[in-house]
Amino acid sequence: MRYISTRGDFEKSPKKSFTEILLGGLAPDGGLYLPETYPQVTRTELDAWRSMSYPELAFAVLSKFIDDIPADDLKTLIFKTYTADVYCNGRAGGNSEEITPVCWLRPGLGLLELSNGPTLAFKDMAMQLLGNLFEYVLEKRGEEINILGATSGDTGSAAEYAMRGKHGIRVFMLSPFGKMSPFQRAQMYSLQDENIFNIAVRGMFDDAQDIVKAVSNDHAFKTKYKIGAVNSINWARVAAQIVYYFKGYFAATQSNDEKVAFAVPSGNFGNICAGHIARMMGLPIGRLVLATNENDVLDEFFRTGIYRPRGTVETHATSSPSMDISKASNFERFVFDLVGRDPAVIREMWAKVDAGGSFDLSNTPYFARLGEFGFVSGRSCHADRLTVIRDAHEKFGVMIDTHTADGLKVAQENLSPDMPTLVLETALPAKFEDTIVEALGKRPDRPAGLQGIENLPQRVEVLDVDTEAVKQYIVAKLGMS
Ligand SMILES: *Cc1c(COP(=O)(O)O)cnc(C)c1O
What we know:
Blueprint: E1 3-5, H1 18-22, E2 33-35, H2 43-49, H3 54-63, H4 71-81, E3 102-106, E4 109-113, H5 123-141, E5 145-150, H6 154-163, E6 169-176, H7 182-189, E7 196-201, H8 205-217, H9 219-224, E8 227-228, H10 235-252, E9 260-265, H11 270-280, E10 285-292, H12 297-304, E11 306-307, H13 331-338, H14 343-354, E12 359-360, H15 365-369, E13 375-379, H16 382-396, H17 402-413, E14 421-425, H18 433-440, E15 461-463, H19 467-478
Parallel strand pairs: 4-14, 5-6, 5-8, 6-7, 7-15, 9-10, 9-14, 10-13
Antiparallel strand pairs: 1-2, 3-4, 11-12
The protein binds pyridoxal-5'-phosphate.
């Protein structure tokens, strides 16, 4: 399996193998990596996969994308990742052996539980595997990496819980001082592992992100101190997420003649991109229902054909904060397929996007093809979220988080009589207590191990919004100069 860049500049971005792109981000020509062709699943394979456990299925699916790690080693890494003790947050009634069980709300409408990992959000599903893959590949090469990132919550904690205690890996995670919830702060800052460094900057999330960009643009520093990243465009994260579309499909059907719709609360388009790829592989996905919050750049595209990334001023802070994006970093992967994999078309479109502009496909044949790819979309706002959380609690007896509520709202607007719909549960309500209290007048339950984590000792360095100060901190911690 070779990987190509969506921008198609083979001089700058020659074809690579899986482990060659594992630790990197963007391709050198500015594009995103995708398999040269999508591996296909046969009917016989689907029949055989139907009864597999999660790790068996993950091995079967991922073996199609990863051919440069010996099969036995890959199997070990996957089985070590998807175990009941990693994906068992103690949720009452949760079937942790299943890793991603379906919770049926009523016949034909279910939640695919993806948030049973250590940080209570679906990002653990891919990030935990990434931790094990990184450690394995670095050890084989005798290399090390210092992961630098900025977070407003979910991504940073998922990365830290995936990388904690891993050999050859350190994590330097910037977060905005005083801007995260006490629970989110406790989740990250209470980690006592020696390879995890929390830095709270006296500013906003954007300030933290700007520092990360500034450090990464200092190529000499980046090389000398082996700075890397684990952002949402990482191909291995997308690949790992393909697996649970298969698992959900089998859970929702009796035979491989049936179709299933998936509703996906979306931000950077990573999660639903994995669904698109599962469909391209031949999984009978009838529909991909994309849900956004008030930051509706993607809903606008699927309704109008116009992709118009927003400025920072136009990007709202909402009660489903992990979907607050101004542009969707994985979107280019889907558009590449939509335009028949013509890199010249992508280059032209993203020349506009990268210059701060937009593109319009409404009068092109591509717009008509959106339906062929199974996509429909919708948006949700704070008032919708409250209503959906209340309804789910009253009618179905479940507490759902704000992001999953966005997915459920748009799913219910797009139900199809001839196939079941699975809403991807992207976080547990315990992560977003304030909005749950606003909707239901009571606090959500917390998984057993997380009671009172706010009282644990915390490890965090507070720094000014100052790139030099952050660099000096990293250098000091690495014991280098
Ligand atoms: C990251 C995240 C999302 C958005 O997922 P994308 O892959 O960026 O589309 C949705 N919900 C939650 C809770 C998240 O953490």
